[in-house]
Structure of Hydroxydechloroatrazine ethylaminohydrolase:
Amino acid sequence: MKNPLLSPASLEVNELLLLPEYVLLADGPQRDHAVVVAHGKFVAVGLADDILARYTHLAPLALPGKLLMPGFLDAHHHLTQSFGKALAFGEPSEIYRRIWVPLENCLDEKLVYLSAKLAALEALRGGFTTVCDAGTRAAGDASAIAAATQEAGVRCVLGLICNDLADDIDARARAAIVVRAQQHLARWDGHALVHPSLAISVPEAGSDGMLQTAAALCADAGAVFQTHANEHLASVERSIVRRKLRPIEHLHYAGALGPQTLIAHATLVTPSELNLLAHTGAAVSYNPVASSWKGNAVAPALQMAALGIRFGLGTDGTRSDAFRLVDAAETAQRFAFGLASGDSSCGGGELWLDRALRGGADALRLNALSGEIAAGKAADFLLVDLDVPEMRPSWDLTWELVRLANRSQIDAVFVAGKLRLWQGWPTDWDARAFLREVDDIAREVVAQAPIQRVHVAPSLQPLTQTPLPTVE
């Protein structure tokens, strides 16, 4: 039964006492619970009768047929690649060399802002209340990305790339990179929605000294140090040829593996590298859709879970649909490992939902703030409509959320207690006018960028051919 009083206006108040049919807590979906939201946080979560007795000054808002659940966390994204996301379809691995580097190098500050805001809007529509940006190759200090994500309303872990192995880098330039990194961490320290992070694109793009320094700065700041590692055969082989070490081994040798380290992908990992991840406490972003679209392998996430390796789920900018992401996470493990071993559960719905929520918060070092519905944590949450044919009859809501739910069921998206989207669209800015602006600009940028596509459909004209850079 629908609540005729439920509307954006009923949710845009300073304090909310919500009575959903289900609340998704750390130990699973619970009935007969209530949640109080105030000042951007959950101030009370518990049995409905107890909450109603304590908060008599608040008018309860009944939400029959609704699930109140934490917002999803995207543990790996590239917010400034949204103009070209469909250009990567059908391409072989290492598309950054042919598509992303040429595209991002053509973005000025305004284009960075527009691209990031488009990606942020997509993320919110897909149920993500937090995105982790791995850093852009576009010029600037990332402030345009921060402005875009704040205006859209998504929480952002904001990466700053600290690569120092370009041909023209000297000691003075390296010192400038460190200063810039320190300024980035200080600028966003304690910000409500922006959480600073440092990144080196791939281990081979940073000197051992810079890898160690960036990781140490992040450890001291309570921030995340990001890098892509062990994603493609070509990158693994380059590392072996140049350093006589595999990428994750190289990170360990340089002193850059630790609880602050977040490795994107880790699909091509040896047993010894898995041990390094487990022993150092490093985290992984498991990106199953990226593996399917342009990878060489699927990360052994089930084995990582068994070894106690921390990991969240990331889109890698492929598609910002959280329910499809958790479905892909389970399905990829089933195809890659479960079928051959007769594992009919493959972690169960609980594992994948947990890693998309609490696991993502832990990997991003935001577990004190986000990832679950609990008193004192930021009110980043979704209202999901369960009164749909796909969810009826319900026998195991956790499994059903992983395999049957979809983003069309997301009625409301809240970040820091504020309603950001209602039924897929912002309530406080004109997203449709924004999309019309993006359409024209994106076409111009892609036409001008020296992008090289290998797979071109017969109906498409090939784009400009240019020499390829050697590192990400």
User: Anything to note?
Assistant: The chain has two domains: 8-70+372-426, 72-363.
